[in-house]
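Need fresh eyes. Consider my entry:
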Amino acid sequence: MRTLSLIFLMHFFSLLAAQPQNSFFVIHCDPGYADNLHFRLLRELADSAIHYDVPLTMEFSPQWVRMILADSNKIRQVRRWQEEGHEIGAHHHGIYHCTWDSLTNYPDDSIALHQPQSGRCDSGIHISDMTIFWNQLDTLAGDSLLLTWGASDEHPAVDLYPDPHYRTDGGRRSYQAFSNPYEQIHETWIGNRQYGPYNTCQIDYCFLGTMDTVEQIIQLYENSAFSSAYSTVGVVTHVFNYKEARSKGSNNYVMRWIRFISGKGCQTVREILRANPCESTGLASSSTASPALRLYPLPFRDALYMALPEESLRYEIFVYSIDGSMIYHEEKESGILRIDGNSWPDGLYLIFLEIADGQIILERAIKIR
């Protein structure tokens, strides 16, 4: 049996000593809140963030873009934000969202079918396709081929801008704040019409809505056994969340995060993704020339699946726990390998794939309850 070299193992375990080198903070400017009050709140937040050297990625919905373009003072404010290092991007609530922003590329006869039926929903009435939004956003932000896009879409390819660009995604669980840039291909069919394929370079975030969430992310960040697997930590909140947070005084969870993350590689989404080319798996591997290896789900709970490259080679798989102990070993040819991790403790695991031709691929996986 071949064994991984001690030097190789020592090198990759040494990577576990550091936290993520990049961080970003996205602000969603939602439809329904495009008014002078929330613009003033965004200005206050932007001033506070830049005081701590935390640039924001401001993702504007169509309603915010129209409001700003109608007021020369607001346009000048946006220019000042850009000069200070903040990024202007796009935010979109699609037809599956409870508060659809009224723009979409979906055919008219399919829109009503997908509108949420909840009595608390306040969906829009179809105004136009996405073209008007992108044209107006180009005027406001410029650099349209590199706009950051954040959206709530069931099928992102339908409303995506049809050029390569950057995208943010994520959820409400604290571990979703940690990720590595990854490539995503968006393609779908609606009726007999094809949308896409569009390639986006993406990075994930966790939604900040409570102090508990902030403290959970900080705890994960300071646990290098977890956070060292990721290059980036990112969060998102809304302007109306900031309004609610500032009313809590010392329990202002937005400012708690800003003060914590200050000085920890704070950049805009665009800056991070420009400097970190996407990889198809979303995880760092030991060689960009190595065959593609896919692990799923990530994070995993009971079992971890490994899709081995479709090549006529034999693979030797090693799994190491965070303390350097080898806990799994198997030899296998191409195909899907199921690794039972039900009895493993929660935490970070390193997966080494040694190929018959001498190549070694490193992947990392997190187990959670």
